Amino acid sequence: MSWFLLLLSSTVLACRAAVCPCERPELCLHIRQERDFEVFVFDVGGKAWKSYNWSMVTTVATFGKYDPELMCYAHSKGARVVLKGDIPLSYIVDQDNRTAWITEKVNLAKSQFMDGINLDIEQSVEEGSPEYYALTDLVKETTEAFHRELPGSQVSFDVAWSPKCIDKRCYDYVAIAESCDLLFVMSYDEQSQIMGDCIAMANAPLSQTLNAYDQYLNLRIDRKKLVMGMPWYGYDYPCVNLTQEGTCYIAKVPFRGAPCSDAAGKQKTYKWIMKQVNVSLSGRLWDNEQRAPYFNYKDEQGQIHQVWYDDPESICPKADYVTSKGLRGIGMWNGNILDYSDEPVARQQTAMMWNALLGC
Ligand SMILES: *[C@@H]1O[C@H](CO)[C@@H](O)[C@H](O)[C@H]1NC(C)=O
Ligand SMILES: *[C@@H]1O[C@H](CO)[C@@H](O)[C@H](O)[C@H]1NC(C)=O
Ligand SMILES: *[C@@H]1O[C@H](CO)[C@@H](O)[C@H](O)[C@H]1NC(C)=O
Ligand SMILES: *[C@@H]1O[C@H](CO)[C@@H](O)[C@H](O)[C@H]1NC(C)=O
């Protein structure tokens, strides 16, 4: 191809990318205003977003395929839409590679009319390693570039439920929190490293979850940078045996240095859980220590399972903590996994899950 044609085709591409796909061109404008309380939703694709409670949503992190219709709609509701950012850390130790990656993301945000980026780097990192410093620099440089190129844009970073090297994620949490707009604290998968008995337990036990916020706050991380992430999913564990007291022993599946893990179970959506609890052996049970619901069921092969999950009753004290501590807001993984059908029971359960985000 000649120089001229190459130039022409890239110009055409650039122009086409910049055309606003919304019905009204003003819907492509970036969202700049800050709202007092964040409701941060991860969306994994499809059209479930049409049924979200948009009077609450402030940010949608799009982990599915780019959906211009979602962008236009969110903007019409004053909500931000942000990109997903994920890159193997070994690649961005190199400054040129890091800068190139950031530039690519800023350009993508511009061409898709997005309002920021959510950095979802869940890799293990050793303290003091080249990756450790590169990660801190990545967050800082990404935030600077987005704020410079897209004024009012939001850069968020996903952290584990506790800052104590969970899953060997030994990051510089303090520096990362300082340089980005907010941390989405993934207050779930809290059984990823089981050190005691290999038994099924709650995805996000109440006191363990809240104590971990005190750990973040003790690092002098600004409370207004913390968004509490709720699980809208649970874990289904096949029981190696189920004791008379109802303890479900699980297979030993090691993870990042721990002998057992929630990897022995399968993640299940709240939608699935609400159907399965009705055909369970036990019906909904409540664990008073972990403050979480669970149930037992038998599958078609006769295998007993125990399912641990969150519902409005377990979510509401967490949401109350968010307001009483004055945190930045709340969110969930992920918005898609409720039952958004027209069925009356499903509608009510779904509305209650959304409303639980605002507290009891
Ligand atoms: C730069 O990034 C690419 C992937 O985008 C990777 O293959 C390459 O190894 C990286 N280079 C360095 C020096 O890290
Ligand atoms: C259940 O399995 C666990 C782990 O294999 C074992 O320690 C325990 O004794 C078993 N309990 C019963 C009642 O079989
Ligand atoms: C589950 O059972 C309850 C109580 O019997 C009933 O009200 C509800 O409709 C059922 N839910 C589903 C999803 O079938
Ligand atoms: C959506 O959330 C608002 C609170 O912001 C609540 O008043 C309203 O009832 C919710 N809508 C539905 C359908 O539940």
UniProtKB/TrEMBL annotation:
Highest classification ranks of the organism: Eukaryota, Metazoa, Chordata, Craniata, Vertebrata
A Pfam family annotated for this UniProt entry: Glyco_hydro_18
Keyword Lyase tagged: no
Family as reported in the entry's similarity comment: Belongs to the glycosyl hydrolase 18 family.
Domain of life: Eukaryota
GO molecular function, one term: chitinase activity
Name assigned to this protein: Di-N-acetylchitobiase
Species this chain originates from: Sparus aurata (Gilthead sea bream)
Signal peptide range: 1-17
Role description: Involved in the degradation of asparagine-linked glycoproteins. Hydrolyze of N-acetyl-beta-D-glucosamine (1-4)N-acetylglucosamine chitobiose core from the reducing end of the bond, it requires prior cleavage by glycosylasparaginase.
